[in-house]
Amino acid sequence: MSSEQKPVLYSYWRSSCSWRVRIALGLKNIDYEYKTVNLLSAEALSELKEINPAAKVPTYVDNGHALSESMAIIEYLEETHPEVPLLPKDPVKRALARQIALLVTSGIQPLHNLKVLQTLNKKEAGLGQQFAKQFVVEGLTALEVLLKQNSGKYCIGDELTMADLNIPPLVYSANRFGLDLSAYPTVNRINATLAEIPAFIAAHPDNQPDTGLNA
Protein backbone atom coordinates (compact mmCIF):
# COMPACT_ATOMS: atom_id res chain seq x y z
CA MET A 1 0.00 0.00 0.00
CA SER A 2 1.44 3.37 -0.96
CA SER A 3 1.51 6.25 1.47
CA GLU A 4 -0.89 8.16 -0.80
CA GLN A 5 -3.67 5.63 -0.39
CA LYS A 6 -6.49 6.23 2.06
CA PRO A 7 -6.52 4.14 5.21
CA VAL A 8 -9.22 1.48 5.21
CA LEU A 9 -11.65 0.73 8.02
CA TYR A 10 -13.25 -2.70 7.99
CA SER A 11 -16.45 -2.06 9.84
CA TYR A 12 -20.02 -3.12 10.49
CA TRP A 13 -22.69 -0.50 10.93
CA ARG A 14 -23.99 -1.69 14.33
CA SER A 15 -20.66 -2.73 15.83
CA SER A 16 -20.00 -0.71 19.00
CA CYS A 17 -16.26 -1.15 18.55
CA SER A 18 -16.32 0.07 14.96
CA TRP A 19 -18.59 2.96 15.93
CA ARG A 20 -16.17 4.45 18.44
CA VAL A 21 -13.33 4.27 15.88
CA ARG A 22 -15.53 5.99 13.28
CA ILE A 23 -16.11 8.82 15.76
CA ALA A 24 -12.37 9.20 16.36
CA LEU A 25 -11.66 9.27 12.63
CA GLY A 26 -14.32 11.94 12.17
CA LEU A 27 -13.10 14.10 15.03
CA LYS A 28 -9.57 13.96 13.64
CA ASN A 29 -10.79 14.69 10.10
CA ILE A 30 -9.14 11.57 8.66
CA ASP A 31 -10.36 10.61 5.21
CA TYR A 32 -10.71 6.83 4.96
CA GLU A 33 -12.33 4.07 2.93
CA TYR A 34 -15.17 2.14 4.56
CA LYS A 35 -15.36 -1.58 3.88
CA THR A 36 -18.31 -3.55 5.18
CA VAL A 37 -17.81 -6.87 6.94
CA ASN A 38 -21.00 -8.88 7.24
CA LEU A 39 -20.57 -10.35 10.71
CA LEU A 40 -23.13 -13.08 10.01
CA SER A 41 -21.34 -14.27 6.90
CA ALA A 42 -18.77 -17.06 7.31
CA GLU A 43 -17.28 -16.12 3.95
CA ALA A 44 -16.84 -12.47 4.94
CA LEU A 45 -15.20 -13.43 8.24
CA SER A 46 -12.90 -15.86 6.44
CA GLU A 47 -11.78 -13.07 4.12
CA LEU A 48 -11.22 -10.71 7.03
CA LYS A 49 -9.14 -13.37 8.79
CA GLU A 50 -6.56 -13.05 6.03
CA ILE A 51 -6.00 -9.46 7.20
CA ASN A 52 -6.75 -9.80 10.91
CA PRO A 53 -6.22 -13.26 12.47
CA ALA A 54 -8.95 -12.56 15.01
CA ALA A 55 -11.43 -11.85 12.17
CA LYS A 56 -12.95 -8.97 14.12
CA VAL A 57 -14.13 -5.46 13.39
CA PRO A 58 -12.90 -2.86 13.47
CA THR A 59 -9.75 -3.58 11.52
CA TYR A 60 -7.89 -0.46 10.43
CA VAL A 61 -5.34 -0.69 7.64
CA ASP A 62 -2.92 2.22 7.33
CA ASN A 63 0.29 2.22 5.30
CA GLY A 64 0.17 -1.55 5.02
CA HIS A 65 -0.31 -2.13 8.75
CA ALA A 66 -3.51 -3.88 9.86
CA LEU A 67 -4.53 -2.81 13.36
CA SER A 68 -7.32 -4.26 15.47
CA GLU A 69 -9.02 -3.62 18.83
CA SER A 70 -10.81 -0.29 18.99
CA MET A 71 -8.84 1.24 21.86
CA ALA A 72 -5.52 0.30 20.26
CA ILE A 73 -6.67 1.92 17.02
CA ILE A 74 -7.83 5.06 18.83
CA GLU A 75 -4.51 5.31 20.69
CA TYR A 76 -2.73 4.91 17.32
CA LEU A 77 -4.82 7.70 15.82
CA GLU A 78 -4.05 9.85 18.86
CA GLU A 79 -0.32 9.36 18.32
CA THR A 80 -0.33 9.79 14.53
CA HIS A 81 -2.87 12.65 14.41
CA PRO A 82 -2.34 14.58 17.67
CA GLU A 83 -3.67 17.87 16.29
CA VAL A 84 -7.19 17.04 17.53
CA PRO A 85 -6.41 15.52 20.93
CA LEU A 86 -8.64 12.94 22.57
CA LEU A 87 -6.59 12.72 25.75
CA PRO A 88 -6.21 15.61 28.22
CA LYS A 89 -2.76 16.93 29.09
CA ASP A 90 -3.40 16.56 32.81
CA PRO A 91 -2.23 13.04 33.84
CA VAL A 92 -5.14 12.42 36.21
CA LYS A 93 -7.68 13.42 33.58
CA ARG A 94 -5.87 11.27 31.00
CA ALA A 95 -6.13 8.30 33.34
CA LEU A 96 -9.81 9.01 34.00
CA ALA A 97 -10.55 9.21 30.28
CA ARG A 98 -8.90 5.83 29.78
CA GLN A 99 -10.63 4.43 32.88
CA ILE A 100 -14.09 5.32 31.59
CA ALA A 101 -13.26 4.08 28.10
CA LEU A 102 -11.99 0.77 29.45
CA LEU A 103 -14.97 0.37 31.78
CA VAL A 104 -17.13 0.28 28.67
CA THR A 105 -14.81 -1.50 26.24
CA SER A 106 -13.55 -4.16 28.65
CA GLY A 107 -16.16 -4.35 31.40
CA ILE A 108 -19.48 -3.92 29.59
CA GLN A 109 -19.38 -4.29 25.81
CA PRO A 110 -17.65 -7.71 25.62
CA LEU A 111 -20.40 -9.21 27.78
CA HIS A 112 -23.10 -8.40 25.25
CA ASN A 113 -21.28 -8.83 21.96
CA LEU A 114 -22.69 -10.97 19.17
CA LYS A 115 -20.70 -14.13 19.91
CA VAL A 116 -21.71 -14.12 23.57
CA LEU A 117 -25.39 -13.65 22.74
CA GLN A 118 -25.31 -16.36 20.08
CA THR A 119 -23.57 -18.84 22.38
CA LEU A 120 -25.97 -18.29 25.28
CA ASN A 121 -29.07 -18.32 23.10
CA LYS A 122 -28.06 -21.74 21.77
CA LYS A 123 -28.22 -23.03 25.34
CA GLU A 124 -31.57 -21.40 26.07
CA ALA A 125 -33.72 -19.01 24.04
CA GLY A 126 -33.47 -15.49 25.39
CA LEU A 127 -30.64 -16.32 27.81
CA GLY A 128 -28.22 -14.05 25.93
CA GLN A 129 -30.46 -11.01 26.26
CA GLN A 130 -31.06 -11.71 29.95
CA PHE A 131 -27.32 -12.03 30.56
CA ALA A 132 -26.57 -8.87 28.57
CA LYS A 133 -29.14 -6.76 30.40
CA GLN A 134 -27.70 -7.70 33.78
CA PHE A 135 -24.18 -6.60 32.93
CA VAL A 136 -25.20 -3.50 30.99
CA VAL A 137 -27.20 -2.34 34.02
CA GLU A 138 -24.27 -3.00 36.36
CA GLY A 139 -21.91 -1.16 34.04
CA LEU A 140 -24.21 1.80 33.55
CA THR A 141 -24.67 2.11 37.30
CA ALA A 142 -20.90 2.38 37.83
CA LEU A 143 -20.53 4.70 34.84
CA GLU A 144 -23.20 7.06 36.15
CA VAL A 145 -21.28 7.47 39.41
CA LEU A 146 -17.99 8.13 37.62
CA LEU A 147 -19.59 10.70 35.36
CA LYS A 148 -21.27 12.50 38.24
CA GLN A 149 -17.86 12.82 39.86
CA ASN A 150 -15.90 13.92 36.80
CA SER A 151 -18.13 15.28 34.07
CA GLY A 152 -18.84 18.79 32.91
CA LYS A 153 -20.21 19.23 29.43
CA TYR A 154 -18.55 15.91 28.52
CA CYS A 155 -17.32 12.87 30.42
CA ILE A 156 -14.19 14.60 31.71
CA GLY A 157 -15.05 18.21 32.41
CA ASP A 158 -15.64 20.35 29.34
CA GLU A 159 -13.00 18.64 27.22
CA LEU A 160 -13.96 16.06 24.62
CA THR A 161 -11.93 12.88 25.20
CA MET A 162 -11.77 9.24 24.17
CA ALA A 163 -14.14 8.50 27.06
CA ASP A 164 -16.94 10.23 25.16
CA LEU A 165 -16.53 7.98 22.13
CA ASN A 166 -17.94 5.11 24.17
CA ILE A 167 -21.16 6.73 25.36
CA PRO A 168 -23.37 6.67 22.21
CA PRO A 169 -22.70 2.99 21.37
CA LEU A 170 -23.42 1.95 24.95
CA VAL A 171 -26.69 3.90 25.13
CA TYR A 172 -27.69 2.51 21.71
CA SER A 173 -27.09 -1.05 22.93
CA ALA A 174 -29.02 -0.43 26.12
CA ASN A 175 -31.97 0.85 24.11
CA ARG A 176 -31.79 -2.23 21.86
CA PHE A 177 -32.18 -4.38 24.96
CA GLY A 178 -35.17 -2.31 26.06
CA LEU A 179 -33.58 -1.01 29.25
CA ASP A 180 -35.07 1.89 31.19
CA LEU A 181 -32.32 4.52 31.22
CA SER A 182 -34.06 7.00 33.52
CA ALA A 183 -31.74 6.03 36.37
CA TYR A 184 -28.74 7.40 34.45
CA PRO A 185 -29.38 11.14 33.96
CA THR A 186 -25.72 12.07 33.57
CA VAL A 187 -25.17 9.42 30.91
CA ASN A 188 -28.30 10.62 29.09
CA ARG A 189 -27.28 14.28 29.29
CA ILE A 190 -23.83 13.66 27.86
CA ASN A 191 -25.21 11.38 25.17
CA ALA A 192 -27.66 14.09 24.09
CA THR A 193 -24.83 16.65 23.93
CA LEU A 194 -22.65 14.35 21.84
CA ALA A 195 -25.54 13.67 19.46
CA GLU A 196 -25.29 17.28 18.23
CA ILE A 197 -21.63 17.02 17.16
CA PRO A 198 -21.12 16.43 13.39
CA ALA A 199 -18.49 13.69 13.81
CA PHE A 200 -20.79 11.79 16.14
CA ILE A 201 -23.72 12.21 13.76
CA ALA A 202 -21.68 10.95 10.79
CA ALA A 203 -20.48 7.90 12.75
CA HIS A 204 -23.98 6.82 13.85
CA PRO A 205 -25.06 3.36 12.61
CA ASP A 206 -27.98 4.86 10.69
CA ASN A 207 -25.53 6.86 8.56
CA GLN A 208 -23.25 4.06 7.36
CA PRO A 209 -23.03 2.50 3.88
CA ASP A 210 -24.20 -0.86 5.24
CA THR A 211 -26.98 0.47 7.48
CA GLY A 212 -29.69 -2.15 8.00
CA LEU A 213 -27.56 -5.16 7.05
CA ASN A 214 -28.88 -8.20 8.96
CA ALA A 215 -31.29 -5.93 10.86
From TrEMBL:
Top EC category: isomerase
Protein's UniProt name: maleylacetoacetate isomerase
Q: Which cofactor does it need?
A: glutathione
Q: Which domain of life is it from?
A: Eukaryota
Q: Which family does it belong to?
A: Belongs to the GST superfamily. Zeta family.
A Gene Ontology biological process in which this protein takes part is: glutathione metabolic process
Record-level GO cellular component terms: mitochondrion
Q: Which PROSITE patterns match?
A: GLUTAREDOXIN_2, GST_CTER, GST_NTER
Record keywords? Phenylalanine catabolism, Tyrosine catabolism
Does the keyword field hold Hydrolase?
Answer: no
Write down a Pfam family by its short name. GST_N_3
**E.C. code:** 5.2.1.2
Q: Which GO terms describe its molecular function?
A: glutathione transferase activity; identical protein binding; maleylacetoacetate isomerase activity
Record-annotated GST C-terminal domain positions: 90-213
Record's catalysed reaction(s): 4-maleylacetoacetate = 4-fumarylacetoacetate
- Mind telling me which InterPro entries this protein's record contains? Glutathione-S-Trfase_C-like, Glutathione-S-Trfase_C_sf, Glutathione_S-Trfase, Glutathione_S-Trfase_N, GST_C, GST_Zeta, GST_Zeta_C, GST_Zeta_N
Any idea where the GST N-terminal domain is? 5-85
Which pathway is it part of? Amino-acid degradation; L-phenylalanine degradation; acetoacetate and fumarate from L-phenylalanine: step 5/6
